[in-house]
Specification:
The chain is an alpha+beta fold and 256 residues long. Helices cover 34% and strands 10% of the residues.
């Protein structure tokens, strides 16, 4: 995970990621389009995977080179607008899976973020958000941090495998203890869902969602399961197939 972050220090990276589900068909369509576009860019090793969206000079130059409308032409996966008042958009906090793709936030364990973002986190303009975290019964610092960082960076988070194995043999059952606040405190899940709706309502949009650690490789496969994550990676990879750890493979020696 630290190696991935070194190549992508302009975003938050994490292994225990969470997906935000949309009840709106409009939002679902936009989200799926963003995920499909991101996967396409990584498979093509497109320039959008190497140039930051806020690097306006280079973005303008690449738009001109590829005959993209300089004003209205979109070249990056879009953030999804959330319209609480206009269309009653609400989201659901999906605590059932740790997805590789379409993850919008990460839990603190295993999460890495550049310390420069702390300057913004503690800026007076976000005093209201910090107070919200203190006052809310679930103290949702994780979802607030992920949402804030993604909006500051203009990019979604990145995910890395939660488990690796030494060989292709079937791995032992994951017995890592996990917090059980969700089940021990009454209405914890509902309160978390209320919290994410409040945080996203504050910002007005949701980041495009992550691409998996296997993006741009043959290991990425379509995910047709009920959760509709679009794609997925191998659950227990060996170190030798993680692309950014292998010299010359996709994502190696990037600098964001």
């Amino acid at each position: 995970g630290f190696e991935l972050w070194k190549f992508n220090s302009d975003v938050q990276v994490g292994s225990m990621a969470r997906n935000i589900r949309f009840s709106s068909n409009r939002m679902n369509t936009l989200q799926n389009e963003a995920t499909d576009l991101a996967s396409k860019f990584h498979h093509e090793n497109a320039w959008q995977t190497h140039i930051h969206p806020y690097d306006t000079e280079n973005v303008v130059a690449m738009k001109a080179k590829h005959n993209i409308d300089p004003v209205h032409g979109s070249v990056y996966p879009k953030f999804t607008p959330i319209c609480n008042k206009q269309s009653g958009d609400v989201v659901e906090y999906n605590y059932f899976v740790f997805p590789d793709y379409k993850a919008h936030m990460v839990l603190p364990s295993g999460s890495i973020v550049h310390r420069n973002f702390l300057c913004f986190v503690w800026h007076p303009v976000f005093e209201e958000l910090r107070q919200f975290i203190l006052d809310h019964p679930t103290h949702p610092d994780d979802m607030t941090m992920s949402t804030l960082v993604s909006h500051l960076s203009g990019k979604p988070l990145r995910t890395f495998p939660r488990n690796v194995q030494e060989s292709e043999e079937k791995p032992a059952e994951d017995k890592v203890p996990r917090r059980k606040l969700l089940w021990q405190q009454k209405n914890w899940g509902n309160m978390r869902e209320e919290a994410i709706n409040s945080v996203l309502g504050y910002f007005g949009s949701v980041n495009p969602g992550s691409v998996g650690w296997c993006a741009g490789t043959d290991i990425e496969v379509s995910d047709k399961s009920k959760g509709n994550m679009r794609f997925k990676c191998k659950e227990y990879p060996t170190m030798d197939i993680i692309p950014w750890l292998q010299e010359g493979q996709h994502g190696y020696d990037e600098c964001h």
